[in-house]
Structures are given as structure tokens and as C-alpha cells.
Amino acid sequence: MTARIVVVGNEKGGTGKSTVAMHLVVALLRQGKSVGSLDLDARQATLSRYVENRRRRDPEGSNLPHPDHRAVPPSGDEARDAALFREHFDELRARHKVVVIDTPGSDLPLSRLGHSFADILVTPLNDSFVDLDLLAAIDGDGLKIMAPGRYSDMVWETKKARAQRGAMNGIDWFVLRNRLSTLDAINKRDMEKLLHRLARRIGFRMVNGLNERVIYRELFLQGLTLLDVGEGSGQKMTLSHVAARQELRQLLEALGLSS
Fold first, then answer.
1. Where are the beta strands (DSSP E) in the chain?
2. pTM score, two decimals?
3. Predicted confidence (pLDDT) per residue in 124-154, tens digit
4. I need a labelling partner for 15 at 20 to 30 A (CA). Which of 21, 96, 174, 212 fits?
């Protein structure tokens, strides 16, 4: 079995990485795929807590599908952390069809190592020029792209590391405009224009992510995703849930993970 490796990464925190990772995990499980998940952001451990909340709600997995989840808590020993990552990673990709890796919101050796194994890299990005700065340096007067940002440089370096390791395929990189406001705004339109230009320059594809909704924060505490709502979850399906599910379906299609 050759597993597809999906890495959710961005050097900035607060972009919804763990929420996106968990929704991808559950969507794939509900497609009938075997899924492993690996939390490299184990100091904050949002994805691990999400999985724990889910198992607490349904310990036997009789109503809610669970991933085979692992975590790499930071030890301060780079070599030890890398070895533990490889141990978990090798086991997961040998057992499952897809492995989803959640990474820290900072540039750490462990994060770079995880990125270098990505077949698909998903980078959630808030609709903010503060977040965009990690992808590119922007001239504030003319909104011109001056140079790639720190995270773009890191992705380039991990692509080279992947090639040096002998990987035959490259990284399919998607920048996901996350937590979008439903209201039109000049800032929103400027972001879209810049991202389209940047996509051509540094080689990613831009996709729409998940709009800002309170429901995501509520579901986390229950270990639920949008795909669990209305199926004995105690959560009543609303029009907002229906719209959010459609966003998730479109995201899966864009990433090539819908079947």
C-alpha cells in the first residue's frame, strides 16, 4: 500500500490548521479510507485534543470513525524527535491509505521534516496581509510582490530535501483562503489579486477554504466535525451547516481527495 501524505502547514498560528486537518481526516474516513494522523504540533496539541475529545464521546468508535492517531511531543532533542517521527510515520504509511500530518505554526526542524514527505501540502491562510507576509514581501504602496516570504522559502527548501531523498513526485501545494468573511471588501479583493499573482510566481494553487463560523469552535469540544452533525450527535442541522458542508466538499474536490 502506498499512502498519500497530506501535510497541513503554515508558520503562522491561528489560521485553522488543526480544524482543517481534522475535517480532512474525518472526510476521508467517511469515504471508507483507512487514515492515520500525526500531530507534530504536540506542544499545543490541538489536533491530538480534538481526537481525544472524539474518542471520549464515542470510545468504541461505533458511531464516529476514528483515525489511527500519533503525536511527537517536543523533547528538545532534535535527533530524538526526528527518530520518533520516522517511527510513527513509517508505521502509519505502511498501514493506511492516507496519512494527515498537522505541523507547528513555527519553523522547526521537525516541521521541515514533516513537510518534506508531503504529496499534498495544504496551507491555510487568513485573509490578512499579516498572514500573506509569510508567503511574500509586499510593497504596501503599489501592492507589488517584492520577494518570496519565509514560509515560501522553507517550502522550496523542503522540496529540494524531498528530491535529494529520491522522491519521484513533487509536492502539490495548495494555499487555502481560510476563515473568509462573507462580506465583500476592498482588502478581500486585493488579497485575491495578490494571491493569484503569487501562485504563478512560486508555484501553488489557490483554493477557498472554510468561512468563519462559530460552529467550528463548538464542535471541537465535542470531538465532532461538520460531517458528524445531524447523525445522532445532538447537533441539529441548520442552513449554515449545509453551506459549510458544501465548502468542505469543494475543498476535497480541489485537493483531489473527493474519491
1. 4-8, 35-39, 68-71, 98-102, 120-126, 136-139, 144-148, 172-178, 205-208
2. 0.91
3. 988 778 888 888 888 876 678 888 889 999 9
4. 96
